[in-house]
Amino acid sequence: MDKILEKAKSTNNLTKSELVQILQNDELNEDLFTLADKIRKDNVGDEVHLRGLIEFSNICKCSCKYCGLRKDNDILERYRLTPEQIIDFAIKASKYGYKTVVLQSGEDAWFSAEKVCEIIREIKKFNLAITLSIGEKTFEEYKAYKEAGADRYLIRIETTDENLYKKMHPNMDFENRTRCLKDLKKLNYEVGSGCLVGLPNQTLNSLADDILFFKEIDADMIGIGPFIPNPNTPLSDEQGGTFKLALKVMAIVRILMPTINIPATTAMETLNPNGRIIALQSGANVVMPNVTEGDYRKKYEIYPGKICINDTPNQCRNCIESKIKSIGRTISTNYGFHIKTK
Ligand code: 5AD
Ligand code: FES
Question: Is the CB of residue 58 less than 8 Å from the CB of residue 69?
Answer without folding.
Answer: yes
